[in-house]
Design a protein that fits this description.
The complex is a heterodimer. Chain A is mostly beta strands. Chain A has no helices and ten strands. In chain B, strands 3-2-4-7-1-8-11-10-9 form a nine-stranded mixed β-sheet, with helices on both faces. A two-stranded antiparallel ribbon of chain B has the order 5-6. Classes of the chains: A mainly beta, B alpha/beta. Bound molecules: zinc ion (ZN).
């Protein structure tokens, strides 16, 4: 069993093949993350539908923070990703970059799902992160 | 809708008041505003009390306004508790203006107060972090300083703004704070000192951030007749606009820009008419971004305002002559009305060593708070015109 930390943010047939979940409005074409019940531009529920968002995108902006909320590690690296296929710009923590030099505005990013114990037996919490597609280790 | 005026306005010196409760902090500013107004306090028809975090810090919930006005001795008439993140004070002001403008009230009181210091700094920081959507962005692990840093980094890369120029905004606000007896920080710093202070989140350093603080502010709003009787220079509320986050679509207009355009339009002025402004510098260099969002300069030209020293109190377009949030301090709920106090004092020639000459006639204050869906949750902007 699995449960997304943020409601309606991740979906998929099983925990090993999760994708980002969002909504698309059939009238105005706008996409939202996480998925929602209506289109706030068109103010209707009639034309909104759950869709899989692209698991790839470009890094719009990022920052390495020396401070982090309780329960998160330092450095705390956060960024905005412009999802491919006309997806929305989403906030994400960044992971698996190996070296900060691998993070560049505009660089290609991909979804990484992380799993944590939920506190309930048999249920894992899943969260999304983004990692650079190219993440070479600094050679000594 | 009839014209409304700021009659009396006041604030205490922001800072650390471990022995004062929120009612005690508010008492002085409320009564100074009453005396400044030359009104009979029995005539106050309605009160709005803005506060953001008092419930989390002190445990007093659901009727903090009543506890504050009990101490002040104001009772019987409607008391409305106002909560809108760091824009709580200016939201109380907005509502007090609406009450008088609509004819519902002849005299309305707006109070802003915050007590952020307690025996546990972690508790204070935790309280501040609740000004995001805890079910969504809160669970994404957002760090507020990081959000500001990303905005700055993107903007700086686009327009070639240097870290030195960013630091100079903090230098300016500390220069002003040194001249303001109401400021929490009253010490000047050099650009080198700002840059050498502890890094919070690149490019933001400690001396560019606002301190944790306690404080209160209060304001009485009345009609033209009350303004004439008050005896000081009448300051009319030309427009007051409150806006909320939008679902931003990549480079669509920000809530701040939307609110500003409406505020200028309702006041019948252009941004170029503004002679003094108090802006929400939650971190000092974000001011550069705000100059552009608010139309105070062309896109990419904000750095020129700093380089030319236009935005110092003796410059062409004085901004945050109070010291801004950076130096004056930022007891969240008290900030909005404190910003207005500075504009009014400058218009009346009561700003002491930091007085702008000639006294400004057209001014504005912009106050924001919270974060939702990647945007500021609430933004208030007020245009004041002195007669
Ligand atoms: Zn739509």
């Amino acid at each position: 069993m699995w449960k997304p930390k943020i409601a309606r943010s991740l979906a998929g047939p099983d925990i090993d093949s999760l994708h980002l979940m969002g909504s698309r409005c059939g009238t105005c074409g706008k996409k939202y993350f996480p998925a929602r019940k209506n289109c706030p531009h068109c103010m209707t529920e009639d034309t909104i539908m759950d869709v899989a968002l692209s698991d790839a995108g470009k890094l719009h902006s990022f920052v390495v923070c020396g401070i982090a909320p309780p329960g998160y590690e330092v450095p705390h690296v956060q960024g905005y990703i412009d999802l491919d296929d006309g997806g929305p710009r989403i906030f994400s923590l960044l992971t698996d970059y190996n070296d900060e030099k691998n993070l560049k505005v505009g660089c290609a990013m991909k979804l990484t799902v992380i799993r944590k114990e939920s506190g309930t037996a048999g249920v894992e919490t899943v969260e999304y992160r983004f990692a650079p597609v190219e993440s070479k280790k600094e050679t000594a | 809708m009839r014209d409304t005026y700021i009659l009396g306005i006041s604030m205490n010196r922001f800072g650390k008041y471990p022995d004062s409760s929120m009612p005690e902090l508010s008492y002085g500013p409320i009564w100074e505003a009453i005396r400044d107004s030359k009104i009979d306090p029995h005539d106050i028809d309605i009160s709005f009390v803005g506060n953001a975090y008092g419930g989390l810090i002190t445990g007093q919930e659901s009727m903090r306004g009543q506890t504050i006005l009990r101490e002040a001795g104001i009772f019987m008439k409607p008391i409305i508790n106002v909560e809108n993140a760091c824009a709580s004070g200016s939201t109380a002001f907005y509502l007090a203006h609406q009450a008088v403008a609509s004819g519902q009230a002849k005299l309305a009181l707006a109070v802003g107060v915050e007590k952020l210091f307690c025996d546990n700094t972690g508790k204070s920081l935790q309280a501040l972090s609740t000004s995001s959507d805890l079910e969504i962005e809160g669970k994404m692990g957002i760090v507020f300083a990081g959000i500001y840093a990303m905005r700055l980094r993107t903007h700086a890369a686009k327009y070639g703004i240097t870290t030195e120029q960013m630091a100079m905004v903090a230098v300016k606000n500390h220069d002003h704070g040194a001249l303001n007896q109401h400021a929490q920080h009253r010490k000047r710093f050099t650009m080198e000192e700002v840059l050498a202070s502890r890094s919070i989140v690149d490019p933001i350093t400690l001396l560019m951030t606002c301190p944790l603080g306690d404080g209160a502010s209060a304001c009485l709003i009345g009609d033209a007749e009350s303004a004439r009787q008050m005896g000081k220079r009448p300051v009319r509320i030309s427009s007051t606009v409150l806006g909320s986050f939008g679902y931003s679509w990549h480079d669509s207009e920000s809530v701040t820009t939307r609110v500003a355009k409406q505020a200028y339009h309702e006041a019948g002025i252009a941004p170029g008419d503004i002679q003094i402004a108090e802006l929400h510098d939650a971190v000092a260099p974000i001011e550069l971004f705000l100059y552009e969002e608010l139309g105070l300069c062309e896109p990419g030209k904000s750095k020129d305002l700093i380089d030319n020293r236009d935005v110092w109190f003796d410059g062409r377009l004085p901004i945050n002559t109070s010291g801004g949030l950076t130096a004056k301090g930022h007891p969240a709920g008290a900030t909005g009305i404190a910003q207005l106090a500075e504009v009014v004092w400058q218009m009346r020639g009561e700003a002491g060593e930091r007085q702008v000459h000639p006294y400004p006639d057209i001014g504005m204050a912009e106050n924001g708070g919270g974060n939702v869906a990647g945007e500021t949750a609430a933004v208030a902007m007020h245009v004041l015109i002195a007669e």
